């Protein structure tokens, strides 16, 4: 009962956050137990944002929310459409056994001149559950997000 209540609260918070998102899209990650997710990004300052996702698998529902404390443009030649970011946050995967994780991420986004962002990131996670603690060094992902509101 307690797990269901906690899961309901987390789902409501994630849906509320997704409604406020400035970018919303998909995340594909071949190295995690949950391989695809719906993700969003919400800018909270000039160079900061919240970056999160909700993932579903056969028997797992996963929630990740990260605070990207550094979100900054960089140039490659004449192209200034790249953004790089770094952040930390938490992850909660709910199944028969729930797991909590502390994640770090570093990644690069490319912003097209039309409302689309594609990116790649690396997100290792330190997982804590009732049986053991595991540091997962995997976590490479590809993303595509629709831009609803510009920064």
Largest sheet: 8 strands, antiparallel, barrel
CATH architecture: Beta Barrel
Structurally, the number of domains stands at 1
Intertermini distance: 40 Å
Which class best fits the helix and strand makeup? mainly beta
How would you state the average pLDDT, rounded? 84
Shape: elongated
Number of strands: 10
Q: What's the Cα radius of gyration? A: 16 Å
Quote the CATH topology.
Porin
**Tally of contiguous helical segments:** 1
Quaternary structure type: single chain
Question: Given this structure, which CATH class is correct?
Answer: Mainly Beta
Order of helices and strands: HEEEEEEEEEE
Strand numbers in spatial order across the main sheet: 1-2-3-4-5-6-7-10
Question: What would you note in describing this structure?
Answer:
- Helix content is 13%, strand content 60%.
- The chain has 1 helix and 10 strands, in the order αββββββββββ.
- It has one helix at residues 2-20, and strands at residues 23-28, 36-43, 49-56, 61-76, 79-94, 99-111, 116-122, 125-128, 133-136, 140-147.
- The protein has an 8-stranded antiparallel beta barrel with strand order 1-2-3-4-5-6-7-10.
- A hairpin with a 4-residue loop joins strand 8 (125-128) and strand 9.
- The longest helix has 19 residues, at 2-20.
What would you say about this model in short?
This protein is mainly beta. It has one helix at residues 2-20, and strands at residues 23-28, 36-43, 49-56, 61-76, 79-94, 99-111, 116-122, 125-128, 133-136, 140-147.
Note the topology:
Layout (H helix, E strand, L loop, with lengths): L1 H19 L2 E6 L7 E8 L5 E8 L4 E16 L2 E16 L4 E13 L4 E7 L2 E4 L4 E4 L3 E8 L4
Antiparallel strand pairs: 1-2, 1-10, 2-3, 3-4, 4-5, 5-6, 6-7, 6-8, 7-10, 8-9
């Amino acid at each position: 009962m307690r797990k269901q209540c906690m899961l309901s609260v987390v789902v409501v918070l994630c849906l509320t956050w997704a409604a406020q998102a400035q970018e919303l899209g998909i995340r594909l990650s071949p190295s995690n137990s949950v391989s695809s997710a719906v993700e969003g990004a919400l800018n909270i300052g000039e160079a900061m944002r919240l970056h999160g996702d909700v993932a579903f698998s056969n028997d797992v529902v996963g929630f990740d929310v990260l605070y990207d404390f550094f979100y900054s443009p960089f140039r490659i030649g004449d192209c200034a459409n790249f953004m790089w970011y770094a952040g930390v946050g938490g992850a909660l995967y709910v199944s028969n056994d729930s797991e909590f994780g502390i994640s770090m991420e570093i990644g690069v986004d490319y912003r097209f001149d039309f409302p689309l962002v594609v990116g790649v990131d690396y997100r290792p996670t330190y997982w804590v559950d009732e049986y053991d603690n595991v540091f997962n060094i995997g976590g490479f992902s590809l993303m595509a997000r629709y831009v609803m509101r510009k920064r």
